[in-house]
Specification:
Length: about 60
């Protein structure tokens, strides 16, 4: 028996794809709003972290 036959036996199964679409849309809408409203200097700092010099922004032993 195919898997689709099991799904067709569940009552009101058609609402789940619609709920998934709404969750997907809301998540990426909130993410886009966050990105457009975020502080550009903070985003620049965060984007430089993986490639930047490790000792540039951290304290050395002599600073402690």
């Amino acid at each position: 028996m195919k898997f689709i036959n099991y799904l067709s036996g569940i009552a009101d199964i058609g609402i789940f794809p619609l709920i998934s679409l709404f969750i997907f849309f809301i998540f990426f809408t909130v993410l886009a709003i966050y990105i457009f409203r975020a502080d550009k200097t903070h985003l620049g700092y965060m984007s430089d972290l993986p490639l930047g010099d490790e000792n540039t922004n951290s304290k050395t032993d002599s600073d402690l």
